[in-house]
Automatic annotation (TrEMBL):
<keyword id="KW-0808">Transferase</keyword>
<dbReference type="Pfam" id="PF12436">
    <property type="entry name" value="USP7_ICP0_bdg"/>
</dbReference>
<feature type="domain" description="U-box">
    <location>
        <begin position="578"/>
        <end position="652"/>
    </location>
</feature>
<protein>
    <recommendedName>
        <fullName>RING-type E3 ubiquitin transferase</fullName>
        <ecNumber>2.3.2.27</ecNumber>
    </recommendedName>
</protein>
<dbReference type="GO" id="GO:0004672">
    <property type="term" value="F:protein kinase activity"/>
</dbReference>
<dbReference type="GO" id="GO:0005524">
    <property type="term" value="F:ATP binding"/>
</dbReference>
<dbReference type="InterPro" id="IPR024729">
    <property type="entry name" value="USP7_ICP0-binding_dom"/>
</dbReference>
<dbReference type="InterPro" id="IPR013083">
    <property type="entry name" value="Znf_RING/FYVE/PHD"/>
</dbReference>
<keyword id="KW-0645">Protease</keyword>
<comment type="pathway">
    <text>Protein modification; protein ubiquitination.</text>
</comment>
<dbReference type="Pfam" id="PF04564">
    <property type="entry name" value="U-box"/>
</dbReference>
<dbReference type="GO" id="GO:0005634">
    <property type="term" value="C:nucleus"/>
</dbReference>
<dbReference type="GO" id="GO:0016567">
    <property type="term" value="P:protein ubiquitination"/>
</dbReference>
<dbReference type="Pfam" id="PF00069">
    <property type="entry name" value="Pkinase"/>
</dbReference>
<dbReference type="InterPro" id="IPR003613">
    <property type="entry name" value="Ubox_domain"/>
</dbReference>
<feature type="domain" description="Protein kinase">
    <location>
        <begin position="304"/>
        <end position="559"/>
    </location>
</feature>
<dbReference type="GO" id="GO:0006508">
    <property type="term" value="P:proteolysis"/>
</dbReference>
Length: 654
């Protein structure tokens, strides 16, 4: 018997979240043409195929449940039945008889809220929520119901998932058809799910009662989908009309055809330009820089009152002020630095580069976001009442500085060099995240015959080759990063720090040099950072490591988990041995107060996951896979369970 190669397409819940509501896709669950595909031999055991899914998606086999997706009369392909234990022992070739063409599967990730053993009465339904006010239909998630139960019994769950109040009237619809006409059937909440003819893979769309919205343009799910359908019909008609015009144009003279092609090319160019503009506005709207007048700055600082002054360096005088009820930092730039720094900060936003809010050209002033915890130098020497930084936060800062340098160095058409990377130019926000600051001094360094200002303070961080030949390169920043790594590791002054660390390594006494105020720094990690820091501060550039391929590959694994969990929030879960594990936030390791479900399917404490996302992390804290989106959904059912558990504990303790 000959073996054949078959194509298996696997959809996950993240694919559903990214599909529904995007690019006008409101009907059905997912486009299987856009999900991951696997080319495998038909003799491959399904159990082995599941191991392949572990490698690709990161979901362990014991947490996988595979559903067959079958095509329906309405043209959709929906999860129909889960593979049984017996079917899992067969080869993937046993699935092909059930399909015409590619094999289509739905991978369900099991957790504590999902039943492991399903019976004939269990029905898997998919939920969508329609907001008549916003005219928005979005995917909510999955839910298991009993065929003999009634929809009225799950109304409280639906309200919790949507964030409705407990007595909110809601309406339920089954999404049935889209082509050639839209058809959504009202679900009778007092009949059983079987009585409503619901089965595995069906979609329940629900909304607040349409009565308050009866004067709205699209008050119900049905009317909204009809509106979307009409738009698609109109687009199809326009396409058909354009195709007819093309046929007519082809019948005309060669000159007219050439002219039509030129016009078409111009239209395409304008369309592409418009699409790029929309994309830039959507993805980079944070780069909009406001224009302030000198009067605005005077009002914000009470006419530059001395009490508002928070710093005066070679970069300029810095004031703390309030503009539009927002606390900001206002820097009155020294001559020659204003344009240089603005040009750097206009290149794009990065979570670890200070945010430029606006400028005042007439005063050569920059308006920045306000960062309340000063700069890194203050934290290293514990000035201004700051406590010592724990080793977890120090590791995090090293990773953030490296990440921001990679961003600057990768800018095209020409890389950007910070040129004055020192702890005093690294600011700390309220969550102990670091942000680079004070760009532009490199322009003064490069002026012929110029001597860098405040050379004594800068000298330990400056590239020796730059001091020799005046040539500022990307590896100059690498040198400065190496000194910062060694300072955070040891807490000692920067001058001659490389010699002290090198001697400690040679005498096997590094543990004596590590800053004890940082806590019990894991020795293996500390030694890695010490060796990395020394390689960065080599006197000649050709011996220094490449930032991306040599430095980041060492730092990135050390910063993979959010270190704040180890410092500010970690509480031992073992102290609450009777607490169910799914009540514990995976990041904070403590019982959740406001559980929120992320697009990776895991539930986290709201404060922790929002901080994770706000810091620019695009991967799941649990699986390290790319997050489909940044949406968070309140897990109100879990919150109720947690509160009930805590109340029971309180009663038992009393």
């Amino acid at each position: 018997m000959t073996t054949q190669s078959i194509v298996i397409k696997v959809a996950r819940e993240g694919d559903l979240r990214s599909y529904v509501g995007n690019d006008g896709h409101y009907f059905d669950l997912v486009d299987f043409n856009k999900v991951p595909s696997f080319n495998v031999l038909d003799t491959l055991p399904i159990s082995r195929f599941q191991e392949n899914l572990v490698e690709v998606f990161g979901t362990a086999v014991q947490f996988q449940r595979i559903w067959l997706c079958l095509r329906r009369q309405n043209g959709t392909c929906r999860p129909s039945k889960p593979l049984s234990a017996l079917e899992n022992k067969k080869s993937v070739g046993s699935l092909t008889s059930k399909f015409a063409g590619d094999v289509k599967l739905f991978l369900e990730v099991l957790n504590s809220c999902i039943p492991r053993n399903l019976c004939m009465e269990d029905i898997l339904v998919f939920l969508k929520l329609y907001d008549p006010e916003q005219k928005q239909l979005r995917y909510i998630g999955t839910l298991y119901v009993k065929g003999t139960s009634k929809p009225a019994e799950i109304l409280h769950k639906l309200r919790n998932l949507a964030g409705f109040c407990a007595d909110e009237e809601i309406e339920l619809y089954e999404e049935i058809n889209f082509e050639p006409v839209v058809f959504c059937e009202v679900i009778d909440v007092d009949r059983t799910f079987r009585g409503n003819q619901l089965e595995n893979g069906d979609i329940i769309c629900y909304q607040k009662s349409s009565k308050p919205w009866k004067l709205r343009t699209h008050p119900s799910v049905q009317s909204f989908l009809e509106h979307v359908h009409a738009l698609k019909d109109e687009q199809r008609r326009k396409i058909c009309a354009l195709e007819e015009d093309i046929v007519v144009l082809k019948c005309k003279s060669d000159l007219q055809i050439e002219q039509a092609k030129m016009e078409c090319s111009q239209l395409k160019h304008e369309r592409d330009y418009a699409v790029r503009q929309v994309g830039e506005l959507q993805d980079q709207n944070a780069q909009i820089i406001l224009q302030f007048s000198f009067a605005d700055l005077q009002q914000a600082t009470e006419d530059f009152k001395d009490q508002c002054k928070i710093g005066d360096t070679e970069y300029g005088c810095v004031y703390k002020g309030i503009i539009h009820n927002t606390t900001v930092a206002i820097k009155m730039c020294r001559t020659g630095l204003f344009q240089q720094e603005v040009s750097v900060l206009r290149q794009g936003r990065h979570p670890n580069i200070v945010t430029l809010i606006g400028i005042c050209s007439e005063a050569s002033a920059l308006v920045y976001e306000w960062l309340p915890r000063g700069n890194l130098e203050d934290h290293i020497v514990c000035s201004n009442g700051f406590p010592p930084l724990p080793w977890q936060i120090r590791t995090q800062i090293i990773g953030e500085v490296c990440c921001s340098l990679l961003f600057l160095h990768s800018y095209t058409p020409s890389a950007l060099v910070h040129g004055d990377l020192r702890p005093c130019n690294i600011l700390i926000d309220a969550n102990y995240r670091s942000k680079l600051y004070n760009f532009g001094m490199s322009s003064l360094f490069l002026q012929p015959g110029a001597c860098p200002p405040n050379l004594i303070a800068r000298h330990p961080y400056m590239d020796p080759e730059f001091l020799t030949n005046g040539d500022l390169t990307l590896l100059s920043d690498v040198y400065s990063l190496g000194v910062i790594i060694l300072r955070l590791l040891t807490g000692t002054p920067a001058l001659a720090i490389a010699r002290r660390v090198s001697e400690a390594l040679e005498s096997d006494s590094l543990h004596l040099l590590i800053d004890k105020s940082a806590g019990d720094w894991p020795y293996t990690q500390a030694k890695q950072l010490a060796l990395l820091g020394l390689s960065c501060v080599e006197m000649t550039r050709d011996k220094r490591p490449d930032l991306l391929t040599k430095v980041w590959t060492v730092i990135e694994p050390l910063t993979r988990k959010p270190p704040t969990a180890s410092w500010r929030f970690v509480q031992s879960a073992s102290r609450e041995s009777c607490t169910p594990s799914h009540f514990i936030c995976p990041i904070l390791k403590e019982i959740m107060n406001d559980p929120q479900m992320a697009s990776d399917g895991f539930t986290y404490e709201a404060e922790a996951i929002k901080s994770w996302l706000d810091d620019g992390n695009l991967r799941s804290p649990m699986t390290n896979l790319a997050l489909p989106n940044r949406d968070l959904i309140p897990n109100r059912a879990l919150r109720s369970s947690i509160q009930e558990h805590l109340q029971q504990q309180q009663r038992s303790n009393s």
